[in-house]
Input
Amino acid sequence: DVKVTQSSRYLVKRTGEKVFLECVQDMDHENMFWYRQDPGLGLRLIYFSYDVKMKEKGDIPEGYSVSREKKERFSLILESASTNQTSMYLCASRRGLGYNYGYTFGSGTRLTVV
Amino acid sequence: AQKITQTQPGMFVQEKEAVTLDCTYDTSDPSYGLFWYKQPSSGEMIFLIYQGSYDQQNATEGRYSLNFQKARKSANLVISASQLGDSAMYFCAMREGYTGNQFYFGTGTSLTVIP
Output
């Protein structure tokens, strides 16, 4: 069964800390994505990657960076965590091009910044 | 302008009844795909159903069907014979263009099935 694995379900970090959220997929998908989910706002795209070492900004990249050194792994980095980055973070992957290729999501990481 | 609009923050339905969750979309691209996802309290997003802009027939997957009205730009999800396990958040999403990578999500509808 295809799988997207996020390393942590719950995370509590202090303001100013550098935070790494890890995502690994075992489907050999080219595309990987990081979203944050907030009540009333739905899912908003932070960054995505369509190939190793390639990245594109999404709608809300400020305060975040990403790394994709290997095809199966896509990391989201909070350079200096702030309380307004408290949120649910969802990683997703998708096969290449094609109308009906949907996302496969991970279970999410609920991050609290105190 | 919002790409995807879900106007129902919360919905209630009696067990075994049918329920319709609304979704309207906004795009000028003739090629697009529409998706519905379910998010239970566990947090994982589960793919339910897909409709392509050129598909002639409404998509169906088991108890899920998509009422696709292209002229009105609506893609409502219909769940028949609701079950208690259907209680969850439901998100409508759109991908634009054949090569489009980004999905646009609505704000979601929280569905509660009442026994």
Q: What stands out?
A: The first strand of chain A starts at residue 4 and ends at 6. The two ends of chain A are 37 Å apart (CA to CA).
